[in-house]
Amino acid sequence: MKKRVAVLGATGIVGQRFIELLADHPWFDLEFLMASERTAGKIYGESVTWILEKPIPRKAYEMELLPINIDLLVRGKVDIVFSALPSDVAKNIEPQLAERGIFVVSNASPMRLEPDIPLLNPEVNADHIEILEEQRRKRGWSGAVMKVPNCTTAIATLSLKPLVDEFGVGKIVIATMQALSGAGLTGVPSMFILDNIIPYIEGEEGKVESETLKILGEFKGNSIIPNSSIAVTSSCHRVMVLEGHMEAIFVELKSKASADEVVKVMEAFKGNKIKGMGLPTAPEKPIIVRREVNRPQPRLDRLEGRGMSVVVGRVREDRVLNGVKYVVLGHNTIRGAAGTGVLMAELLVKKGYV
Ligand SMILES: NC(=O)c1ccc[n+]([C@@H]2O[C@H](COP(=O)([O-])OP(=O)(O)OC[C@H]3O[C@@H](n4cnc5c(N)ncnc54)[C@H](OP(=O)(O)O)[C@@H]3O)[C@@H](O)[C@H]2O)c1
Asked: How far is the CA of 227 from the centre of ligand 1 (A)?
């Protein structure tokens, strides 16, 4: 039987991606679309500023946009809520939903670093989902909250995981070139970004540096222990690209490896933590490596694996860090947001939580 789901923040960029990914989903039925009072009461298709390539899915077009209503979601027997709400709104709503028995898969940043909250990039750390038992027991919730990582971090950790497992990793330096869609539908005015690069994204560097350690950490006993043998530093920049975050990553490797060996290990990575589970949104190849010197590029490569694969290129040895350097590209609103959220929900179902 299909699970009943809702999208909160349905009119925003991430909300639109959720609607696209859920339209023909074999396991989920989209029952409610909610957003702010500004758009509530209107027909979705008539009020949303739709920006995705494909048209609005037919069913969603006709649905009524509702204000956030927890009672209605409970009465409507919703199993999973996908939250694409701004942080300040999510912070209050999400715990209330979990308390009322709903499983929340959230893109908003509050609670991401709390030790009993799974911050999941399923191919990397699906086992961290086991912390939900402790979370529910400790907080007295019949539902639960799970967080999708920050978009830049989701893309980086997917590319780093095989290196951590195979060679061991010490220092990591990340410099990003991040797409405009990462700032939301009304995020960066054109007057600021045309012919320009903005060398600051509020809060982003801290998120990349702390979330990476949690995702690459270990689930032990009753909590998730961040990885203490890795150190991450980052510099984050907004560039004039619509979708697709590019990251230049420099990695210290604990055991020596050539560029060819690194490529081999990345290409062989199958996302072992969810391999063989048959999750519909899981890409066949989580990491695709390109040999051409001018790839990856956002326009050409962001939709690899239906936006769920990351594309690595320019893999070279790095003499300063005694390791390797490369460029990775990922689709920020799919791999970095809604796509990973749907994959997490599939994991919840597969594991029998809902
Ligand atoms: N964009 C990305 O690549 C990305 C990646 C990872 C995580 N995130 C996170 O995901 C969340 C959504 O991001 P976004 O880029 O989709 O933002 P967005 O385009 O600005 O959309 C925000 C959504 O929240 C709704 N909303 C605003 N205030 C509300 C309120 N008081 N009550 C209920 N709904 C309200 C808006 O509805 P109205 O249309 O009715 O105002 C809209 O649907 C944020 O927490 C963001 O940090 C974004």
From this structure: 30
CB contact set of 221 (below 8 Å; sequence gap of 6+) = none
Residue located nearest, by CA, to atom 7 of ligand 1? 107
Mutate to test the pocket of ligand 1, among 13, 153, 335 (most ligand atoms within 8 A of CB): 13
Question: Could you tell me if 21 and 126 lie in one domain?
Answer: yes
Residue/partner pairs of 308-313 with CB below 8 Å, 24 or more apart: 308/281, 308/282, 308/283, 308/334, 308/335, 308/339, 308/340, 308/343, 309/283, 309/285, 309/335, 310/155, 310/158, 310/159, 310/286, 310/335, 311/287, 312/159, 312/266, 312/287, 312/288, 313/289
CATH number at residue 260: 3.30.360.10
Range of the domain at 327: 151-331
Indicate if 116 and 169 belong to the same structural domain.
no
186 Cα nearest atom in ligand 1: 20
- The mean pLDDT value for 119-128 works out to 98
> Is residue 270 domain-shared with residue 231, that is, in the same domain?
yes
- d(C-alpha 226, C-alpha 138), whole Å: 20
Q: Is the pLDDT of residue 221 over 90?
A: no
Average pLDDT over residues 175-188: 97
* 249-290: pLDDT as tens digits: 999 999 999 999 999 999 999 998 999 999 999 999 999 999
The mean of the pLDDT values for the chain is: 97
Residues 169, 306 within the same domain: yes
67 C-alpha to center of ligand 1: Å? 14
Query: What is the reported pLDDT for 37?
Result: 94
Tokens standing for residue 276:
């063989």
The pTM assigned to this predicted structure is 0.98
The Cα 297–Cα 132 span in angstroms is 38
Report the percentage of the chain scoring pLDDT > 70. Answer: 100
CA of 325 relative to ligand 1 center, distance in Å: 34
In this structure, are strands 3-8 and 80-83 parallel, antiparallel, or unpaired?
parallel
Note the pLDDT of residue 142.
98
